[in-house]
Amino acid sequence: MSLPDLNTEDGRAVYRKELRDIGRPLRLGGLALIVLAAVVVVVTSRGMLGLSPDLVVVGYAMLAAGWGLYLAAVFLRTRHHKRRLAEGL
N or C: which end of the chain has fewer CB within 10 A? Predict the structure, then answer.
């Protein structure tokens, strides 16, 4: 890959789209896991749906895993960005 064209608005838009696409499945999976974990924690802590209070621990584990996926996606995107800009050196 060549150095991205950041001098024009079109070039910056193309590069922003490229960066958005890096790690997208991880980001979306992490976000879905975070939302699902929040629902599980709220539902179980309020005793709704007759779920066991032990599921709160599972909800917090899901929350940690979701944030882990999200942070992994941010790491991948940052690493890609640094490598792309270093190609011009």
Answer: C
